[in-house]
Amino acid sequence: MSSPELEFTGRRRRRIILAASAGNFAEWYDWGVYGVVATIIATQFFPPGDAVVGLLSTYAVFALGYLARPFGGIVFGRIGDKFGRKRALSLTILVTCGGTAAMGVLPTYAQIGLVAPVLLVICRMAQSMGAGGEYASAISFVYEHSPLGHRARNVAQLVATTFVGIMTGTVLARVASAVMSKEAYNAYGWRILFFVAVPLAAFGFYLRSRVEETPEFEELARVRRETASEASPVRSTLRRQWPAMTVLLVCTASYALISTTITSYLTTFLIDVNGLSTGDAYNATILSNIAVIIATLVMGVVCDRIGLRRTLTIAGVVVAVAAVPVLALAAHGLAGGLIGGFLIGACKGLLAVPALLALSAIFPSSVRVTAGALAYNVAQSLFGGTGPFIGVWLNDTTGSPYGFGVYLAVLALVTVVGSVAGRRVFDRRYSSSRDTLDASGRGGPAAQRMADTA
Predict the structure, then answer these.
(1) Which domain holds residue 105?
(2) How many domains does the chain have?
(3) pTM, whole model, 2 decimals?
(4) What CATH code is carried by the domain that includes residue 355?
(5) Which residues of 231-258 are buried (b: 16+ CB within 10 A; e: fewer)?
(6) Which residues pair with 430 in a beta bridge?
(7) Cα–Cα distances in Å, from 89 out to 72, 116, 125, 126, 310?
(8) Strand pairing partners for 1?
(9) What pairs with residue 428 in β-bridges?
(10) What are the tens digits of pLDDT across the range 250-278?
């Protein structure tokens, strides 16, 4: 088998990252759109009356959708670890974008009553299930194609397309709300944002279907054939990888929360707490996503230089210190909203690379997608899916933006403690040549202690 160091160059490198990124862009565009139109969904799919109750209901649906993410992680993780990363990636984009496009044609509460929110939940579950398998599959795909010294920065490029996709949803919402009257946009204009999922899915599926499988998985599949080993990623993951999965869950809790803060709650926060207009809130959210993208790309280089665990620890400390003052700043006026939004976006970018790189870096290739997807999506369900709901509830209960900021700061401290306590997990590395000798997923001879330099 030729070395990934030699293969991941030039045209091939661009094609692989483009295929992974195009699908990633499509799926996370879909994910972000729900958040930027949450205030409209609250009026379209739930009984009229208390605006706070309607918004809480919208985010309750958001949280319910997250329950499907661990299930999606198991289903698509098994596909990725048993049949290949490429096949999992091709399926996740169809499921996620299908759920998103379906939201664009749903009848409203005024048309069919309580059936409307039920259908909304079903679409969100489908969208969440696909997203649950997407990240771990895409990150493993790029990680396994990358040379050792460039894994973080290549994964950072992939992760950045996530935020470009989310930001694109906000930009299109801003354009649509500007060129259409408020009545037209609220009545049907928001649906256009969901229909965009169809061409994005087609393009992403086409690109992903034309790239080759990763060298690590091809070697793993070869060993399985020669030894007549049956892949059992779910059973092996639960039995042998639970310590590393626990560390990953703990360390990604703050990222799970801050990721939904930008993706699905910041716009609502700026409108309801700060009092900004919809257009100004969209502008601040766009600026925030620009900060995320910049910080992500920078942290990819930093992580390759100083190591995964150190990068995660530093990011957790910064977010713990900045969370409360930054959200407090974002709650006061247009300038505060723009600056605070930019800074909270930068905090998200700091956490993104080490948190998401860990999905692949701390697990052997035989169970990499399953283990990473399951642990990460449980964290997303517990802390990400409930984040907007808790944010609305805390701010409404306390009458200030500080409660949610304290919650984020506490979880960031948990990340710091987890990264320090989980040193042995983060310092472990797996070489593809040795890892594939144990095709059952035990790790056995694959496990090796190395310096924290990946």
Answers:
(1) 11-449
(2) 1
(3) 0.77
(4) 1.20.1250.20
(5) bbbbebbeebbeebbebbbbbbbbbbbb
(6) 447
(7) 12, 30, 18, 15, 30
(8) none
(9) 449
(10) 999 999 998 877 766 788 788 877 888 88
